[in-house]
Design a protein that fits this description.
The complex is a heterodimer of chains A (about 80) and B (about 180). Chain A has about 80 residues and is of the alpha+beta class. Chain A contains 3 helices and 4 strands. Chain A has a single domain, classed as Translation Initiation Factor IF3 (2-Layer Sandwich), CATH 3.30.110. Chain A has a 4-stranded mixed beta sheet. With about 180 residues, chain B is an alpha/beta fold. Chain B has 7 helices and 5 strands; from the N terminus they run H-E-H-E-H-H-H-E-H-E-H-E. The longest helix of chain B is centred in the first third of the chain and has 21 residues. Chain B is elongated and about 75 Å long. The relative contact order of chain B is 0.22. Classes of the chains: A alpha+beta (about 80), B alpha/beta (about 180).
Chain lengths: ~80, ~180
């Protein structure tokens, strides 16, 4: 998805994991994914650089669809669709 | 020709089902070291693996068992040697030292300051997270016995068992990932 498309997305839930280090954002994502339905969209906010690599890998393993990243000044917004 | 092919297919099916049964989405780890840095690595990998939907089993042995002691608990009736071991080894996860640059606790204090600033969980917090995420801890009976630790002085952890190497081996056999830390 392009950044423009990502910006127009309406996530069903947003989990703010900024300020936590590895494996905080991953664990936050795992927890939040349980609260949404299949096909719904989850947004993860993280200031941890490694998470940008971890979340796509995690999606691959869990078969969620990784939609993309928007980079903000001091954090990134990651989007995925629950399998 | 046809029956020969069917026979081969049947054998293949058996092999595949055996393979599928053999390795589960499971990770077992031998946690041997009793130092803060190594224990942190073990606990971060363990909690991270639960996010990957893996079943995680930790086998605590030797120096690592000291980190499972609860500083608030004490046990009476220990032998002299057990008391000495108990005194010499760190009493719980808060007290463990760094494997490098500990510098009489100064290095550890500096690292802990950085960890707090950067949002890294402390070792006791990692144990709490692991408990919540269903990480199983198995403690080596022989190490406990050797160091004179008793079950009653270990932390309150929901999924903690005292066991032997057989438990570890049977868990490790069916795990995709096995680590020694």
């Amino acid at each position: 998805m392009t950044t423009e498309e990502l910006k127009n997305l309406k996530p069903n839930q947003t989990v703010d994991a900024r300020g936590t280090a590895c494996p905080g954002p991953l664990l936050a994502a795992k927890k939040a994914i349980g609260d949404i339905e299949s096909g719904e969209i989850l947004e993860i906010l993280s200031s941890d650089e490694g998470t940008k690599h971890d979340i796509p890998k995690w999606c691959q393993k869990m078969e969620h669809e990784f939609l993309g990243i928007i980079e903000e000044d001091s954090y990134s917004r990651m989007f995925l669709k629950k399998a | 020709m046809n029956t020969e092919f069917e026979k081969q297919l049947e054998e293949l099916k058996k092999k595949v089902s055996k393979l599928e049964k053999g390795q589960k989405d499971k990770m077992t780890m031998v946690v041997f070291s009793g130092e803060l840095d190594k224990l942190m690595a073990a606990m971060i990998i363990a909690t991270g693996a639960t996010a990957m939907d893996m079943e995680v089993k930790l086998f605590f042995t030797f120096w690592a068992t000291a980190a499972l002691r609860d500083p608030k608990k004490s046990v009476k009736g220990k032998t002299f040697m057990s008391k000495m071991f108990g005194f010499m080894l760190p009493k719980g996860a808060k007290k463990v030292k760094l494997s490098k640059m500990n510098m009489g606790g100064m290095g550890k204090a500096m690292l802990e300051g950085l960890m707090k600033k950067k949002g890294v969980k402390t070792l006791p917090q990692l144990f709490e997270a692991a408990a919540e995420l269903g990480v199983e801890i198995n403690v080596c009976e022989m190490s406990m016995d050797l160091m004179g630790f008793k079950r009653e002085e270990l932390i309150d952890y929901p999924n903690l068992n005292i066991c032997g190497v057989g438990t570890f081996l049977s868990d490790a056999e069916e795990s995709k990932i096995q680590l020694f830390i």
